[in-house]
Amino acid sequence: MARYSLRRLYFKAAPSNLKKLLTLLCLSLLFYLPACVTMPEQSRSGTTPHLKQQTSDNKNSSIDNKNSPMTFDDHLRLGKIYESNGNLRPALREYQRARRMRKNDSRPYFGIGNIQLRSGEFIKAEKSYKKAIRRYSKVGVYYNNLAWVYINQKRYGEAHTMVKKGASLDKGRSYIYLDTMGVIEMRQGNFAVAEQKLKEAVAAMPPLNTRGLLNVYENLHELYTKMMLRTDDMLEVERYIDELKQSLGSTVPMLP
User: Fold this and answer.
1) pTM for the complete prediction?
2) Rounded to whole angstroms, what are the CA distances from 158 to 47, 125, 163?
């Protein structure tokens, strides 16, 4: 409409006003120039095509920041709370959100591996634990939980290797690895060695680590059930298990 009006004015004007009209025409073209220049096509979101791939790569890492004020550590904590209460699907979701925020951090892969291990997805759990180890290889429990994958697959030699590696990195928490070693020996039928390892785990366990004690006593219960000869020991272990379950309360173990 503006161009049509300017053209009509041009033909009606006297020659004496030609210079003024040409000046006006040049100024008008300057105002209309941005609409005439060819620009890269934009999507509705305003993203140019040659930047779409880069934006999509960054989108996942920032999506949680856009949708909620939760931080990386918040997602890890919430995932662990869900996991400790047996809510595996929400736990997995939170670990995956944390992973998208920090793809090079080992802890989300460890959390994801824990969920996969508890869900019986041993091949996936093995891959997740190995990803955690590749990103940070100095955390003993990463190797310990990978050993539990191998225990469930009856790969006891590999499990033992992983436990030894984990124990060498985490000497202040020997009870974790003594417990796992005891289970490996038990599953292989070495009951005397298994009992020794499990009792050493109980002795080394901090008294306030109720959940850890419960795990070890449950493994001892499995051992005595297999042995079928230790009635008194079985009853004592069952009493400890009942007491620990009653006192467990809302204790929530945190990621290392």
Assistant:
1) 0.70
2) 50, 15, 9
Q: Mind listing the domains of the chain with CATH numbers?
A: 70-137 (1.25.40.10), 165-256 (1.25.40)
Cα–Cα distance measured from residue 50 to residue 205, given in angstroms and rounded to the nearest whole number: 57
Q: Are 251 and 211 in contact (CB under 8 A)?
A: yes
Between 32 and 147, the higher pLDDT residue: 147
Phi, psi of 37 (to 5 degrees): -75, 135
CB-based contacts of 253: which residues, under 8 Å, 6+ apart?
80, 84, 211
Q: How far is CA 165 from the centre of its chain?
A: 23
pLDDT band at 217 (very low <50, low <70, confident <90, very high): very high
Higher per-residue confidence, 118 vs 3: 118
For residues 165-174, give the mean pLDDT. 97
Mean predicted lDDT score pLDDT of the chain:
79
| 3-state SS record for the chain | CHHHHHHHHHHHCCHHHHHHHHHHHHHHHHHHHHHHCCCCCCCCCCCCHHHHHHHHHHHHHHHHHHHCCCCHHHHHHHHHHHHHCCCHHHHHHHHHHHHHHCCCCHHHHHHHHHHHHHCCCHHHHHHHHHHHHHHCCCCHHHHHHHHHHHHHCCCHHHHHHHHHHHHHHCHHHHHHHHHHHHHHHHHCCCHHHHHHHHHHHHHHCCCCCHHHHHHHHHHHHHHHHHHCCCHHHHHHHHHHHHHHHHHHCCCCCCCC
Would you give the distance in Å from CA 91 to the centre of its chain?
Answer: 9
- Rounded to 5°, angle at Cα 105 from 102 and 108: 85
